Amino acid sequence: MEKIILTGDRPTGRLHLGHFVGSLRRRVELQNSGEFSKIFIMIADAQALTDNADNPEKVRQNIIEVALDYLSVGIDPEKSTILIQTQIPELCELAFYYMNLVSVSRVQRNPTVKTEIQMRGFEKSIPMGFFSYPVSQASDITAFKATTVPAGDDQAPMIELTREIVNRFNNIYGPTLVEPEILLPESAACMRLPGTDGKAKMSKSLGNCIYLSDSPKEVKKKVNSMYTDPEHLTIDMPGHLEGNCPFIYLDAFATDEQVRRYLPDYDSLQALKDHYTRGGVGDGTVKKLLINVLEELLVPIRERRAYWEQRIPEVYEILRKGSEKARETAAQTLDEVRAAMKINYFADADLIKSQAAKYGK
Ligand code: TRP
Q1: Interval 7-66: pLDDT, tens
Q2: For residue 84, what are the β-bridge partners?
Q3: Is 181:189 a contact under the CB 8 Å cutoff?
Q4: 231-287 per-position pLDDT tens digit
């Protein structure tokens, strides 16, 4: 069977290192692997509006930021179709039909939705649109007949719900939709990058992010103020690795080759960790290594961003063309859905004939 990717991000801010390790890095690898016949990358502005209804300007401004971040990490519009969710109205129609296949309590049990309701203070009054975004996400995925959704583990409940909708739909209306699979990040270090403050998640609202578009100065400042081991007061004292941000980031980004190049005394990251745990390595040394490693990663990303920042109208053109192309695919799926649900009345000559026969004509 042909393999198709769909994945996306809400345009509520610039993308950061958490997005990079959690999904962007993998997307570029998958894009260049040649294993997938189609790749769709969605800027999920409709989903962003489900909890930003009063702030459409924020969503509008961040569409270009997310697009620039995509292009700067190496998403290639020749290989991947970048689309804007609201430009594909077929997605809304699909979601409206899928809502009949999902119970309220099913969505209430979704752990990601639960956390978001808490974080946004929606406990007392949940907007309908926000509550139904997992169903709309099922439309995003199925409209493109995606087989593969590369995403972080917080998206697992959405993919699970999508599979349930697909199964219910196909059972009731006949085989039409494709069941997707989530493709999780490869290693534990990539599952979820903590914020620079040591909190579990890098998140814009917590103000603990390193953005892909941060300047070298900002990166340096953020790394130098990172949470390490509060009990590691002097260089000689034994240090702890657990919850120690620079080490967690090194796990996610550094190769042993880089460790050897920047710190010739150590032949691997493990050797540095061992010495740190025994005592004798200062946090400054670890942070300096991390700054070097991050800069190696970020320099080409910044260069590509600067290139596209000088070509904004061209970027919008990429988004327009991508959305147009994506819409053709979604419209095709919607036709199939309408036919399966038998709501394609005017395309169904048998229906008209049999109704006429009922009345003797
Ligand atoms: N829910 C995703 C997020 O919060 C964004 C998203 C929308 C998405 N539609 C999708 C992800 C479809 C994967 C597949 O970042």
Answers
A1: 999 999 999 999 998 889 999 999 999 999 999 999 999 999 999 999 999 999 999 999
A2: 43
A3: no
A4: 999 999 999 999 999 999 999 999 999 999 999 999 999 999 999 999 999 999 999
Q: Kindly list the distances between the CA atom of residue 225 and the CA atoms of 61, 186, 190, 207, 253, in Å, as whole numbers in the listed order.
A: 29, 28, 22, 13, 18
Cα(167) to centroid(ligand 1), Å: 20
How far away, in angstroms, is 3 Cα from ligand 1 center?
19
CB atoms within 10 A of CB 314: 12
Q: What is the pLDDT of residues 343-354, one digit of tens each?
A: 999 998 899 999
Ligand 1 neighbours, Cβ below 6 Å, are: 6-10, 42, 44, 47, 137, 140-141, 149, 151, 155
Tokens describing residue 157: 């409940």
Strand, helix or coil for residue 361? coil
Phi, psi at 163, each rounded to 5°: -65, -40
Residue 219 to residue 221: CA distance in whole angstroms: 5
C-alpha span between 214 and 216 (Å, rounded): 7
In three-state form (DSSP H/G/I as H, E/B as E, the rest C), the secondary structure along 220-249 is HHHHHCCCCCCCCCCCCCCCCCCCCHHHHH
